[in-house]
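Thread title: Can someone regenerate the structure for this chain?

I was given the following input by a collaborator and told the matching structure tokens would be attached. They weren't. Posting the sequence so someone can regenerate them.
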Amino acid sequence: MRDLCQRVDQFARWAEDVQPPVLFWLSGFTFPNGFLAAVLQSTARQQRISVDTLSWEFIVSTVDDRNLLTPPEDGVYVRGLYLEGAGWDRKNSCLVEAEPMQMVCPFPTIYFKPVENRKMSKSMYMCPCYYFPVRAGRAGRPSFVVGIELRSGDVAPDHWIKRGTALLLSLDN
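Best answer:
Regenerated them for you:
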């Protein structure tokens, strides 16, 4: 019920405002992949380029959400994700070992920035993002949303693969 109220609140505020929201709660969308595709399509139209040449650059915020006052020129700020299987070092903006007994931790806001012809760095961990903790999904609905590049810190990206590190949109099944 709490998620439903937050979802209704997000869309009601968006409908009332002339400008798009500064922060988007990605979990509030029934089909977040469609929202992200629409953001890429909007950027492609503005820049008059093919949407197929665009991909995401992910910039994890180092400031408090209250300091994000205006939406970005291109892309969106996404909030409300959870990190499972690792911790996050805000100072160095990279993955670290989780605190003892901490299975999941809130993740900072991420700037999803559309960029053209981007190459992936080998020092980055392509962190899968899922709708919910059951990664296999449900009948007819896969759980995978998007791969998000995160700095792997002092270890190789393979370390986080073995840990099963992932981002989650929701902690509820």
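Residues 2-168 form a domain with the Hypothetical upf0131 protein ytfp fold (CATH 3.10.490.20).
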